[in-house]
Amino acid sequence: MHISMNRRKFIQSISSVSVGAVLGAATGTGLALAHPQIKRVGGSKLKTSLNAYSFNKLLSDNAKTPGSGISLFDLLDFCAKNDFDAVDPTAYFFPGYPAVPSDAFINDFKLRAFHLGLDISGTGVKNNFADPDPKKRAADVKLVKAWIEVAAKLGAPVIRVFAGPIPEGYEDKWDEIAKWMVADLKECSEYGKAFGVLVGVQNHGDFLRTADGVIKIVKMVDSEWFGTILDTGFFLTPDPYVDIAKAMPYAVNLQVKESPFGAASPIRIDVKKLIKIIRDSGYRGYCPIETLSVKGQEQVYKPYESVPRFLAELRNAIEQSA
Amino acid sequence: MNRRNFLKGASMASLYAATGVGVGSTPALAEPQIKRIGGPKLKISLNAYSFSKMLNDYKKDPTKGISLFDLLDFCAKNNFDALDATGYFFPGYPSELPTDAFINEFKRRAFELGLDISGTGVRNNFTLPDKDKRAADVKHIKQWVEVAAKMGAPVLRVFADTQMKGQSWQTVAPDFKREQVEDWIVENLKECADCGKQYGVIIGVQNHGDFLKTAENLLHLIGRVDSVWCGPIVDTGYFVSKDPYEDMAKVAPHAVNWQIKTSPFGAESGIKTDLKRLIGIVRTSGYRGYIPIETLSVKGAPYDPFDAVPKFLAEIREVLGTTT
Q1: Class (C level, CATH) for B2-322
Q2: What is the per-residue pLDDT across A233-282, written as a single tens digit (0 to 9) for each?
Q3: Which residues of chain A have a CB within 8 Å of the CB of B32?
Q4: CATH number, residue A50
């Protein structure tokens, strides 16, 4: 009975897809299929989260040499003390990565997060679906699938994957790369569907560097279990805010960076402008922040200072626009 | 680091359990308090049970009432942080488990609406002398532990009280002493908690005014189960004691979830919950997590959850916003 209702909803969304597809064809994006934009109700609702990668060095130190740096559990404490709503624990920092952690570890982590009132907003792996070698891509699909199961156990609603860098000799062959990449992403999304975990591809200034590129891939994958992780710092375009606005309706999660032009840029993101763009899209979900060290200036990077500072900026903008 | 905390916790619990033996029904003892840091943090959730009639109507006839998906929309429109999706309202309950496809669609829709799933709950009866019946309920809970894990629900609510209409634990187990009945419940809950540990889901035991009338009843039981995967859910409307607020305050440091009701003396009582006092108690305990609210219909009185829930929610928000 529930199913019939649900089916009704599906049919509704499918018919809106068709409308979108028709419009898409008419506006000349050249794609037959359109991924439905996510239909949300109730206006925007923004929750804060921390990308573990902000503590990359300290977490990596701990993973290599227990006792040094900080552990994922220490990071949970940090998030609680700073009153984040959630944490985004990247897979790299789990013991034994790329091998999957034990259920006992996953559950202890989940329990501690719960005790601290923290949700787990997502996780992510390292992969390269732009690689022309099918064997290498198959190995990465396998990695993503293994971590989809970890994400489900963690209660992480979404897993972040990469597109990968454009391989040498393929500079003018975007569509060719897209073809095999989409096949991989479809396979991952099917697996995500089975485990109730969304797969999100992040624009990383690599194969995916524009909103148009991201939207094209999302539409080609064409799954309700697939969307984009919108990285506010990695659109390589003259006005990244335009790309952010364009890609927002396809976002299943965000990564909010300090600069829209990459970690090395001194130009700070206009947080107020960003939050307005996010709110205008009707997005309801997490805004994980990530601060980064700049190559060659690792010594001056202090996440214990940069994270709370950036969080305060973001929180201020969220509260003032509520 | 964490393991160390767990070990500490475990040994404390054992100590409590050990000293608990011999003091008879005098509780005195409790499970270890949860060590939280960062001060209190409260997130608001809705107990689906507030829409019990409409959700059941839909379950029987999908042209009537509202679906769980409709309820997610309601939560988003009213800006809840989460929904507590009771097992009863899933298709096929209790004889069938929801399919993975249904669970995942529900989970995804909640996520798209920025809602977390703060918990779920099932019906069980551990006060029955019939061992097989209790074993069947343990099995039921174990199955729903898996459903909870798939949904991303951190806590599964179960009962220690009799769930049979018009009955109490004394009437369903008339030939047994409290100690004996508690032994059954402890044994059953231990098995559930072990399953919860395996799947990363906490078993939450709710005081429901029968076997668990007071904070001492609840904490004594939880202390004996002696697992970090089993903790109390504080039902603010179901302590049967002189001053329920005192009971709430005693359990608060151990709570894994709450159910906030409109009256501390049951749905039929005209006395409203002193929300300022209640929120003060929750915050003082350092609790970080969900405070699901639940409004209830009273026999003979008109009840419209579309009206009652937003009203109660506004009252809670007002208190959260004006106190620290």
Answers
A1: alpha beta
A2: 999 999 999 999 999 999 999 999 999 998 889 999 999 999 999 999 99
A3: none
A4: 3.20.20.150
